[in-house]
TrEMBL record:
<feature type="transmembrane region" description="Helical">
    <location>
        <begin position="271"/>
        <end position="290"/>
    </location>
</feature>
<dbReference type="InterPro" id="IPR050882">
    <property type="entry name" value="Prepilin_peptidase/N-MTase"/>
</dbReference>
<keyword id="KW-0489">Methyltransferase</keyword>
<keyword id="KW-1133">Transmembrane helix</keyword>
<protein>
    <recommendedName>
        <fullName>Prepilin leader peptidase/N-methyltransferase</fullName>
        <ecNumber>2.1.1.-</ecNumber>
        <ecNumber>3.4.23.43</ecNumber>
    </recommendedName>
</protein>
<keyword id="KW-0511">Multifunctional enzyme</keyword>
<comment type="function">
    <text>Plays an essential role in type IV pili and type II pseudopili formation by proteolytically removing the leader sequence from substrate proteins and subsequently monomethylating the alpha-amino group of the newly exposed N-terminal phenylalanine.</text>
</comment>
<dbReference type="GO" id="GO:0006465">
    <property type="term" value="P:signal peptide processing"/>
</dbReference>
<feature type="transmembrane region" description="Helical">
    <location>
        <begin position="163"/>
        <end position="181"/>
    </location>
</feature>
<keyword id="KW-1003">Cell membrane</keyword>
<keyword id="KW-0645">Protease</keyword>
<feature type="domain" description="Prepilin peptidase A24 N-terminal">
    <location>
        <begin position="49"/>
        <end position="131"/>
    </location>
</feature>
<comment type="similarity">
    <text>Belongs to the peptidase A24 family.</text>
</comment>
<dbReference type="Pfam" id="PF01478">
    <property type="entry name" value="Peptidase_A24"/>
</dbReference>
<keyword id="KW-0997">Cell inner membrane</keyword>
<feature type="domain" description="Prepilin type IV endopeptidase peptidase">
    <location>
        <begin position="141"/>
        <end position="256"/>
    </location>
</feature>
<feature type="transmembrane region" description="Helical">
    <location>
        <begin position="231"/>
        <end position="259"/>
    </location>
</feature>
Length: 304
């Protein structure tokens, strides 16, 4: 049920000493923050995989909230509808070469495309460096992909599609079972993961109900409940709680800044104040994945 726990998985160059070789990714800063040294070739492969999955994630972010197929049709320019050739669809590179414009009609292509591709690649690399070339490392990549995609969708459209949260929760339950399974699959661990997901969802539903009683309008979405359930399924309740806490603090700060800006810009005063909590929840989940265990340990040590 826990992603963050240290595991003794296979690592190269894990002799503990200051052993260095040309074949290891040896950036001082990266090494200072991560547990594993990974051969350069594996790092390059991981980054390339991240770019490709990031590119696919962009398609999902554009289409899933609209309930469109992610397979067909081929990518098209949203303005002039001309199909985008494979050459113009290379992650990051094409965007830079085309200077962020469509080849056919010169209209702007969102900066979101290269940003998501680069962020996915960075998170994939971080996953492998933090959790090793292991089942856990691959699982961390999958979870990052889901969280980043959902965060971006919520920021853009205020929607958290079931098409990601529901299978994402099921994957978290399955991961927990396989991770804890000594021989094959640990039903108990999978059951605990499912229970954590249910508790997390119930907690958000309770807040949602209380808010409705007090204000008679929707304060927190059903999508947020499913997203927190997904985080709990993968990482357990402690890390899900941390992700929620960070998300609420960040969303509140964001809300206060919006209110302050709105007072200045009188023209925008009619705009409803809507905060994409899911975007902050996604970011909080990614933080909990990489730093959650250390943060929780630090917190509990304060009371020891
Ligand atoms: Zn175009």
């Amino acid at each position: 049920m826990v992603l963050g726990v240290q595991s003794h998985v296979f690592t190269l160059n894990d002799s503990g000493g200051e052993q260095r070789s040309w074949a290891t990714l040896d950036l001082e800063i990266v090494a200072a923050y991560t547990r594993y040294r990974v051969p350069e070739l594996i790092s390059i492969f991981t980054v390339l995989a991240g770019l490709i999955f990031g590119s696919f994630l962009n398609v999902c972010i554009s289409r899933l909230p609209q309930h469109e197929s992610i397979v067909r049709p081929r990518s098209r320019c949203p303005v002039c509808r001309s199909p985008i050739s494979s050459w113009d669809n290379i992650p990051i590179l094409s965007w830079i070469l085309l200077r962020g414009r469509c080849r056919a009609c010169r209209s702007h292509i969102s900066r979101r495309y290269p940003l998501i591709e680069a962020t996915t690649a960075a998170l994939f690399l971080l996953s492998i460096l933090q959790f090793g070339m292991s089942f856990q490392g691959v699982a961390a990549c999958v979870l990052c992909w889901l969280l980043l995609g959902l965060a971006a969708m919520d920021a853009e459209t205020m929607l958290l599609p079931d098409a990601l949260t529901v299978p994402g929760t099921a994957l978290g339950v399955a991961y927990s079972g396989f991770y804890a399974g000594e021989h094959f699959f640990a039903w108990r661990a999978a059951g605990e993961s499912l229970l954590a997901a249910a508790v997390a969802a119930a907690f958000i539903m309770l807040i949602r109900w209380l808010y409705w009683l007090a204000r008679r309008r929707e304060g927190i979405g059903l999508g947020d409940a499913k997203l927190l359930a997904m985080i709990a399924a993968w990482m357990g309740l402690w890390q899900a709680g941390l992700a929620l806490f960070l998300a609420v603090v960040a969303a509140a700060a964001y809300g206060l800044i919006l209110i302050a800006l709105r007072r200045r810009l009188a023209t925008a005063s009619k705009l409803a104040l809507r905060i994409p909590l899911g975007a902050f929840l996604g970011a909080g989940g990614i933080f909990a994945l990489f730093e959650g265990m250390d943060a929780l340990k630090w917190y509990f040590d304060l009371y020891r």
